[in-house]
Amino acid sequence: MRWNLALAALAASWGFIAVLVAAVDLDAPALAFARLALAALTLALVALVARAARLLHPGGRLLALAALGAAQGAHWLLFFLAVKLGSVALAVITFYAAPVLIAVAAPFALRERMSRVALGALVPGAVGIALVASAGQAGGRVSFSALAAGLGSALTYALLVVLSKRLLLGAAAPLTVAFWDCLVGAVVVAPVLLLGSRVLPAGAGEWGVVVLLGVVFTGLSTLVYAMLLRHVTAQAAGVLTFLEPVAAVLLAALLVGEPLSTAVVVGGVLVLLAGIAVVLLEPAGRPATEAAAAVGSKLT
Questions:
Q1: How far apart are the first and last CA of the chain?
Q2: Eight-class DSSP state of 282
Q3: CA separation (Å) from 205 to 14, 172, 208, 211?
Q4: Would you say residue 188 has pLDDT above 80?
Q5: At what angle do helices 98-109 and 116-136 cross, to 10 degrees?
Q6: In the structure, how many helices (H) and strands (E) does the chain have?
Q7: d(Cα 290, Cα 274) in Å, to the nearest integer?
Q8: Which residue from 270, 271, 249, 269 is spatially nearest to 260, judged by alpha carbons?
Q9: What is the DSSP letter of 300?
Q10: Which pairs from 285-289 meet CB under 8 Å and 24+ separation?
Q11: pLDDT digits (tens, 9 = 90+) for 104-131
Q12: Which of 128, 154, 193, 255 has the least C-beta neighbours within 10 A?
């Protein structure tokens, strides 16, 4: 239970990201690149400080780690494309097809048992997300290309979770997984910077927000997520990500005074109930191998 609760708290903390992003006037690809690049640098520094630089070496897992980072970069790009071609609401709703894809794939790719708790929680969670997203932005355009981009972002995120879990169930340390995830993700996003109007933050305020997003909410957060994913099933992790947009809406209401509609409140309650069910009822995931626990122990 404690691992599920910790992951739920981490997912809820990601709600701060939307509030911080609103304070930055950077194109989405530029912000994604900055976050991932700063995250990779942060994780490299963590390894040096912890005298665990060897964990930055991919070992014999370079292809798997590169695929993980490529999935991360592709997820960002497809999510931003869904926003551009459709709307924020469309991008959010289609992205949260990811927990469904994870629930279907995990029993086969990770040999997890089919979780009745996670499957049951998907229903109120998905309905809640739909209510929150539709209340957040009505009247967005819907086209086949926008829908395909949104579902693509869900598919790549599901792939990201499954690949991360597979690596962690083997001998990969959380720091190794997190570092290569962010490093390769930044490389994948980098070419899109050529299409943007501005790639660097302007002024101390924007730099501060970007550094906070990259260091804390991407670098350290990705590391903590990898640590927790060793103890949580991929299916539970997918459902608990529903908490992020709900937390973002609530934090925006508390910190910047954005109004809360009835749909948002009802949707938030449904997502919260889904999260509580997973935290209380879903058993811990299959533990990582002893080798993985040993190499990652310095940072857990």
A1: 18
A2: S
A3: 20, 37, 5, 10
A4: yes
A5: 160
A6: 15, 0
A7: 32
A8: 249
A9: -
A10: 285/3, 285/112, 285/165, 285/229, 285/230, 285/231, 285/232, 285/233, 285/234, 285/236, 286/111, 286/112, 286/169, 286/233, 287/230, 287/231, 288/168, 288/169, 288/170, 288/230, 289/169, 289/170, 289/171
A11: 888 888 888 888 888 888 888 888 888 8
A12: 255
Determine whether 275 is exposed, middle or buried from the number of CB atoms within 10 Å of its CB (0-12, 13-18, 19+): buried
* Separation of alpha carbons 101 and 153, rounded Å: 11
**Does 167 have pLDDT greater than 60?**
yes
Residue 285 three-state SS: coil
Average pLDDT over residues 188-202: 86
For the cut 70, the answer to whether the pLDDT of residue 68 exceeds it is yes
263: its two tokens: 């749909």
pLDDT bucket at 17, cuts 50 / 70 / 90: confident
Residues 6+ apart with CB under 8 A from 124: 270, 271, 273, 274
Q: Which of 234, 242, 228 is nearest to 276 (CA)?
A: 242
Q: How does pLDDT run across 29-50, given as a tens digit for each residue?
A: 888 899 999 999 999 999 999 9
162 in helix, strand or coil?
helix
Whole-angstrom distance, CA of residue 121 vs CA of residue 235: 10
